[in-house]
Amino acid sequence: MQISRYSEPEFDPYGDNKTTETDAGWRAPLATSPLSAVVSLPGSKSLTNRELVLAALADGPSTLHAPLWSRDSELMVEALRALGTGFERVPGRGEFGDDLRVTPADELLGSTTIDCGLAGTVMRFMPAVAALALGPTTFDGDEYARKRPMSGVIEGLKGLGVDLDDDRRGTLPFTVHGTGRVAGGALEIDASASSQFVSGLLLSAPRFEQGLDLRHVGERLPSLPHIEMTIETLAARGVAVETPETGRWVVAPGPIRAIDVELEPDLSNAAPFLVAALVAGGSVTIVGWPGATTQVGAQLAELLPRFGARVERDGDRLTVHAPTPAPGGGRGIRGVELDLSEAGELAPNLVALAALADEPSTITGIGHIRHHETDRLAALATELNGLGGRVAELPDGLRIEPAPLHGGPWRAYADHRMATSGAIIGLAVPDVIVDDIASTGKTLPQFTALWERLLA
Ligand SMILES: O=C(O)C1=C[C@@H](OP(=O)(O)O)[C@@H](O)[C@H](O)C1
Ligand SMILES: C=C(OP(=O)(O)O)C(=O)O
């Protein structure tokens, strides 16, 4: 079989976003009439990057149908390719790019460097794979990636007997000295800073000699649905993860089956589009909404009605209808008291929505999003207040008071969800200029094209 390079010249992780970016930034389009839009979205980042790792560790070739093609998934492909995994693009039925055939290496080989970019999934999922490779693998990433916590991965691998050189600050860069085998066994880690510490160990665990008996010992565990997603993707490949008690996962050693998988659309990337219906009025429909899913974005169907939306489900179509405008002239968007600890990934877009509500909101349980692509609590408060907002940082969340907003610069901090939050504000407020809309290429290279079509 011919294994071609994934990064063929025509592939551009920033895609259509380049076409609308100018030197001054991207002027977020204002919504001038109620929406009536149907939107189709590319594959889920979280599912694609799990399936890439599992396909590379599987007992034969797997095909991923309708995978995500974006900066984060390209970084994952390049990381796995650097260790010897084969990739071949094959024509598929998806609207957003080819399918991908993944052929595991006969033997994973290190002696390489992996660029994690700003991708949490790459920096937290790949070190355990590198420990299964023969030879040293150095991990590094974007400047801000060096600030994201890695202690659960670093201390976890050391606890499993892996030789790892690090800066002792619990961050990138570091080098994993793989020997081609990991003993595995019982391990305790603190995953309070990120559920990805748990997922990253579980994904490789069936390949450890004694499997893994992992216990989380910290105070809180954020983003639980993402751990469920890891367990489900392993189960689909014949690996049972036992959960004898909350915060403990047991994986027996054994093969990871090669299977062909169909990727679901990214429901967290549906958030800005669905939120747009509440801000602009009218309705937005997402097609391809799965019947059952572990994606946390599915919670939008329950979260958006809390803000006053009406949600309708018809087969694989999910439609969000705007609330009735308030008699006094407001949009009718209600304030909320939300604990988003399970769904921190949705927080930036929901905070943007709350900033346009008629009533105050408090969103908590999201202290861990200070460790996402940027300190999202500080970034949201700074950017909204810069446009006249009244947002106060809490230790683990934000308090948002209604305030009239004005136009001005909106910094994205290289964070795709900060960029899309600026676009949401710009629907209602003229002259919001997002400095780095291309950061949406992390998970949705088509963002600006889809956004402009939403408003067309
Ligand atoms: O495993 C994953 O795919 C993810 C887990 C979550 O991370 P945290 O637990 O760090 O919030 C989520 O926020 C991130 O966007 C994706
Ligand atoms: C936190 C996020 O990403 P990452 O996978 O880099 O952690 C996110 O996409 O909101």
Automatic annotation (TrEMBL):
Q: Which sites bind 3-phosphoshikimate? A: K45, S46, R50, S194, S195, Q196, S223, E345, H372
Write out the residues that bind phosphoenolpyruvate: K45, G120, R148, Q196, R376, R417, K442
Location in or out of the cell: Cytoplasm
Task: Please name the Pfam families in this protein's record.
Answer: EPSP_synthase (PF00275)
Pathway field:
Metabolic intermediate biosynthesis; chorismate biosynthesis; chorismate from D-erythrose 4-phosphate and phosphoenolpyruvate: step 6/7
What GO annotations for molecular function exist for this entry? 3-phosphoshikimate 1-carboxyvinyltransferase activity
- Keyword list, A-Z: Amino-acid biosynthesis, Aromatic amino acid biosynthesis, Cytoplasm, Transferase
Listed EC numbers: 2.5.1.19
KW Cytoplasm (keyword) present = yes
> Where is region (Disordered) located?
1-27
* Domain Enolpyruvate transferase: from-to ranges: 32-448
Xref: InterPro entries? Enolpyruvate_Tfrase_dom, Enolpyruvate_Tfrase_sf, EPSP_synthase, EPSP_synthase_CS, RNA3'P_cycl/enolpyr_Trfase_a/b
The record, for CDD domains, names:
EPSP_synthase (cd01556)
Q: Where is the active site?
A: E345 (proton acceptor)
Primary subcellular site in the record, as a coarse category? cytoplasm
User: Where exactly are the transmembrane stretches of this chain?
Assistant: none
Return the broad EC class: transferase
Q: Which reaction does it catalyse?
A: 3-phosphoshikimate + phosphoenolpyruvate = 5-O-(1-carboxyvinyl)-3-phosphoshikimate + phosphate
Subunit field text: Monomer.
> What is the documented function of this protein?
Catalyzes the transfer of the enolpyruvyl moiety of phosphoenolpyruvate (PEP) to the 5-hydroxyl of shikimate-3-phosphate (S3P) to produce enolpyruvyl shikimate-3-phosphate and inorganic phosphate.
The family this protein is said to belong to = Belongs to the EPSP synthase family.
Task: Supply the name of the protein.
Answer: 3-phosphoshikimate 1-carboxyvinyltransferase
